[in-house]
Specification:
By secondary structure, this protein is of the alpha+beta class. It has one domain: Aminopeptidase (3-Layer(aba) Sandwich), CATH 3.40.630. Helices cover 32% and strands 28% of the residues. The chain is built from five helices and seven strands. It has helices spanning 8-15, 19-25, 37-52, 103-117, 133-139, and strands at residues 2-4, 62-66, 71-78, 87-94, 123-128, 145-152, 156-164. It has a seven-stranded mixed sheet with strand order 1-2-3-4-5-7-6, covered by helices on one side. The relative contact order is 0.13.
Length: 165
């Protein structure tokens, strides 16, 4: 498993729902789920972010790629570069066609590995809806500590989990 980084042009094409153009610009084959309603919102945000904060590009959402199967199974990355306190927030989503196969765990473990490898990162954050039983069950298998809650304009109430890295 790995995260495949996309160019700003490929991200912009996904933000427009243009799978054909994004696929032509991507180093790996993309799937229709990457231009689903949920994912297009993510790509739209990442497109704005690439322009406003280009230093975030190496950190933001990429394609969750299964090297063995040679298929895109989701999206994964961080919400941005580390903040002034050294915190990064992980974000991942798995295509429903590939759920319940360990891909969310793989995405989270890739994030933990990357956060631990980056000297400027001190804290890894994950936010989870209190209704998302699968993600809550996953997060609690790692040394995350619940550290409050927040209101997200798109996702509603989220529980905040943090882990020192």
């Amino acid at each position: 498993m790995r995260i495949v980084r996309l160019s700003p042009d490929a991200i912009a094409a996904l933000a427009e729902g243009d799978l054909a153009t994004a696929d032509a610009l991507s180093p790996v084959a993309l799937t229709p789920w990457l231009v689903s309603e949920d994912m297009v919102r993510t790509w739209q945000h990442r497109t704005r972010q690439a322009v406003e904060s280009p230093e975030d590009l190496p950190w933001i959402t990429g394609v969750l790629w299964d090297d063995d199967e040679q298929v895109a199974v989701g999206g994964s990355g961080f919400h941005g570069a580390p903040d002034a306190d050294g915190m990064v927030e992980v974000g991942y989503g798995v295509d429903p066609a590939y759920r319940r196969r360990g891909y969310a765990r793989a995405a989270l473990e890739l994030a933990i590995e990357r956060a631990r490898a980056e000297p400027e990162v001190h804290t890894l954050r994950a936010t989870v809806s209190p209704d998302n039983e699968a993600s809550l069950a996953l997060i609690t298998q790692y040394p995350f500590v619940e550290n409050g809650e927040q209101w997200d304009e798109e996702d509603g109430l989220e529980l905040i989990f943090e882990m020192a890295v």
